[in-house]
Structure formats: structure tokens, C-alpha cells
Amino acid sequence: MKPTFTAACAALVGLLALSQSAVAQQKTAKQCNDEWSADRAAIQANGKTKRVFVAECRGVPVATRVAAAVPAGKDQYATEAEAKTNCRADTVVWVNSTSKVYHGSGSRSYGKTKTGAYMCEKESAAAGFRAAKTARGAAT
Questions:
Q1: Is residue 7 assigned to a domain?
Q2: Euclidean distance between CA atoms 50 and 60, whole angstroms
Q3: What is the mean pLDDT of residues 11-35?
Q4: DSSP H/E element including 22
């Protein structure tokens, strides 16, 4: 019984050492925000939102990243650049897949809701999404 207990203790100590080194290497939100500020244009050119960039920078597991990184429906795009490529004759909007509301590029919710993706405006309306109230109010 002693060898098993000793082996279990040694394994536990090894796991603790590994977990401490992994935590020590993880960047803070402030460090990632500073990186975003320093290279914002280049990061956005790659189609990443600040939220996605910070999650990747901090090493957040894929399962807990922003849903925007994995579009759920037809004609939905993970990045704004990809949507612009496919929506040449239409406006790119951000669709919130939970509320079924879409937001234009001037909206503070554009690319920032917890669940959603980029879409062409006409395709989003055809898919059952509606314009945000602020966007409808601004148009009238």
C-alpha cells in the first residue's frame, strides 16, 4: 500500500507543478488589451474582434470563446472580412442569434454580443432577423 500512496503523492505534486507553470504563462486581460491597442488595425484586418482577440490571447479554451468565432447558420460568417467578401452588393451586419436582432456597423453591439455572426443584411432579414430598434428609429 505504501508504494501506491507514494506514487499518488508524486503524481499530485507533478500536476501541481504543471498547473502553476501554465498559470504563470497566461497573459492578463490588461496585457492582451495593451497588445490590442498597439496593433489594432492589423488584428482587425485579420477579421478579429477585440473580444475574440483577447480570448485567444489569454488562452481561453475553444469551448468558452465567443460564439462569433463559430457561425451557426447558413450565410453566416466568422469574420467581418469574410462577410464583406461575400456581401459585395449588400451591407454587412452583425446578427445576434439569441435575440434574432441584427446590428449595423455603427451600432455599439456590432460584433460584440455573446452569440452571433456576420451576415449580409438582405440574407439576415430573409432568415428572420429584424433590425435593432435604434437602427429602425434612425432610418425614420
A1: no
A2: 14
A3: 67
A4: helix 2-25
